[in-house]
Design a protein that fits this description.
Radius of gyration: 18 Å
Structural class: alpha+beta
Number of helices: 4
Distance between the termini: 35 Å
Strand order of the largest sheet: 1-2-6-7
Strand content: 15-25%
Number of strands: 7
Shape: elongated
Order of helices and strands: HHEEEEHEEEH
C-alpha cells in the first residue's frame, strides 16, 4: 500500500494517517470500484459510498480472505466469518441440504454457496455492489486465476471437474 499511497500523493492527494485503510478509501475516491484492480495481497472489505448510496464489497484475487453476504427481507448483512451472522438480529440461518451433501462428499462447499441457505460467499476476485434498494445489483469477478493440475490421479481430476461445474443460483 505504500507504493499506492505514494502514487496518490504524486497525484495531489493528502493523507492524515499512514494507514492502509486511508489509502484504500483514497483509491476508491479516485477510481471508484476499479480501485480493486490496483490492489495486491489479501483483503476483503466493504465501502459504503454515501454519495451514490451503494455498498461496495470486494475480495482478494485468490480468495484468502472470506466475505459472506445475505439478504433476508429488508436486512442485508455482510461478515468475514459465518458465525458473525448469527449475531444479526432477526436473521434466520438454516442449513442448506445441498451444501451439507457437498461438505460430506468433498469436505468443502463450493462458492457461491455456504452451509447456510441464502448465505453466499463472494468469489475470489469478486466485487459486489449493493444499491439503496438492498438488492445486489452487480456481482462480478475482476480477476480470474487459471490453475493447471498435472501428475494427479484420475479420481482427483474427476472431482475437480465436477466441483468446477457445481452451480447454484444466487437468490
Amino acid at each position: 500500500y505504500v507504493e499506492l499511497r505514494d502514487e496518490l500523493r504524486a497525484a495531489g492527494r493528502t493523507f492524515r494517517t499512514e494507514s492502509d485503510t486511508e489509502v484504500l478509501l483514497q483509491l476508491y475516491d479516485a477510481y471508484g470500484a476499479a480501485c480493486v484492480r490496483k490492489l495486491n495481497g489479501i483483503f476483503a472489505f466493504l465501502i459504503y459510498d454515501r454519495d451514490r448510496n451503494v455498498v461496495l464489497a470486494a475480495r482478494d484475487h485468490f480468495g484468502v480472505k472470506p466475505l459472506y453476504w445475505t439478504r433476508q427481507g429488508s436486512t442485508f448483512a455482510f461478515a468475514s466469518e459465518l458465525r458473525a451472522l448469527r449475531a444479526v438480529p432477526g436473521l434466520e440461518l438454516r442449513i442448506d441440504g445441498r451444501a451439507a451433501s457437498a461438505m460430506l462428499r468433498w469436505s468443502f462447499v463450493p462458492h457461491p454457496a455456504t452451509i447456510y441457505d441464502g448465505v453466499h460467499q463472494l468469489a475470489p476476485g469478486g466485487l459486489l455492489e449493493v444499491t439503496h434498494a438492498f438488492s445486489p445489483s452487480a456481482v462480478s469477478t475482476l480477476y480470474s486465476v487459471k490453475v493447471s493440475i498435472t501428475n494427479t490421479s484420475g479420481a482427483v481430476i474427476d472431482d475437480l471437474r465436477y466441483t468446477r461445474t457445481f452451480d447454484w443460483d444466487v437468490d
